[in-house]
Design brief:
Layout (H helix, E strand, L loop, with lengths): L5 E12 L2 E12 L3 E5 L6 H9 L6 E6 L9 H5 L1 E3 L12 H10 L15 H7 L15 H13 L5 E5 L7 H18 L2 E5 L3 H7 L2 E6 L2 E6 L1 H6 L5 E7 L2 E7 L2 H12 L3 E7 L3 H19 L1
Parallel strand pairs: 3-7, 3-8, 5-6, 6-7
Antiparallel strand pairs: 1-2, 1-4, 8-9, 10-11, 10-12
This protein binds adenosine-5'-triphosphate (ATP).
Adenosine-5'-triphosphate binds next to helix 1.
């Protein structure tokens, strides 16, 4: 990908709090319409990275371009193109759901274009986040999960071209989570919204993300599709089969190539073939463990 076509372009990003470096030379990009998941253990630097990209935190060093601008200097027009999902709008407890979304949405009207009409129609947006029944309710009367849906609605009311979602489904019940996943997919597929998602839910990352970036100890330890990442863990696929009445089990790096060879050699004599690929969870844990071992030996 050329840097100019990237919606997010981060090169050599560093962040230091006092005398502690928490981001070391972080480099990654996101394309138009791509869903990127940023994963990593607690304290890895995900929130710090996202807040720098959102323009809420000033970096110590490195080049950061977000929708063509440096977020540290992004003006009103730039901000109108970026969606941020913040934690609950507690100060607005007396506002009603539809009223707040219409009020906040009005701010984006001057940035409307024929290609991207802004803001979302409040009722369509309320339906998209599953709050139709609660549209007339005061915010302080919503449950935690309903409030979180409202947070998401507030984040996307201006039809952002780039959306930051920081652990968006943490308080969602399974139904709300599934609805939310549909919404994220449709934002990316139908509206070409680029989405940067941080999550601790690996299943969510695997379902939603086109690409996964793993941050550990302030460094990127992996960047690729879920399949790319699992290929980096040699010997993770488990292939089982029966041959001449005997059961065989083999751990291999590339199960497709292995099975092709197996059939090439034994043909129809191979029975009860079963392939188990490593889950993203196993891959993630192996990559993080490997990065942490490397870090310890360098210390
Ligand atoms: N304002 C701050 N001052 C000093 N250190 C900070 C500050 N904010 C974060 N840190 C430190 O920076 C590191 C990265 O924190 P960050 O919140 O970015 O991690 P994270 O990956 O988002 O973690 P989590 O998954 O727990 O939310 C941590 O060691 C944290 O203690």
């Amino acid at each position: 990908m050329s840097s100019s076509s990237a919606v997010l372009d981060v090169k050599g990003l560093r962040m230091r709090y006092g005398s502690t470096d928490v981001l070391h030379d972080v480099t990654f990009q996101a394309r138009h319409g791509e869903v990127l998941a940023l994963l990593g253990p607690n304290g890895a630097g995900k929130t710090t990275t996202v807040e720098i990209l959102e323009g809420f935190r000033t970096r110590s060093a490195g080049q950061v371009t977000v929708l063509g601008a440096d977020p540290a200097a992004g003006g009103e027009r730039w901000r109108a193109r970026v969606g941020v999902v913040l934690q609950s709008w507690r100060d607005h407890g007396k506002w009603r759901v539809r009223e707040l979304l219409a009020h906040l949405g009005a701010h984006y009207a001057p940035y409307s274009t024929p290609h991207l009409p802004r803001p979302w129609d409040p009722d369509r947006l309320i339906a998209a986040v599953g709050l139709t029944e609660h549209a007339g309710k005061k915010i302080k009367t919503l449950s935690g999960g309903q409030r979180r849906r409202l947070d998401v609605a507030i984040g996307i009311v201006g039809r952002p071209e780039l959306l930051f979602l920081d652990e968006p489904t943490a308080a969602f019940d399974p139904r709300a989570r599934a609805d939310f996943h549909d919404l994220v997919r449709s934002l990316a597929a139908d509206q070409a919204t680029t989405i940067l998602l941080t999550t601790h839910d690996l299943d969510e990352a695997e379902k939603l993300a086109d690409r996964i970036v793993i941050l550990d100890g302030g460094r990127i330890v992996a960047d690729g599709t879920a399949a790319d990442l699992s290929r980096r863990i040699a010997g993770h696929d488990e292939v089982r089969w029966m041959l001449d009445g005997r059961r065989h089990t083999e751990r291999v790096a590339d199960s497709t190539a292995f099975v092709r060879e197996l059939f090439g050699r034994y043909g129809g004599a191979v029975e009860e073939l079963d392939i188990q690929r490593a889950s993203l969870e196993q891959t993630y844990l192996a990559l993080v463990r490997r990065a942490e071992t490397r870090e310890e030996t360098h210390r």
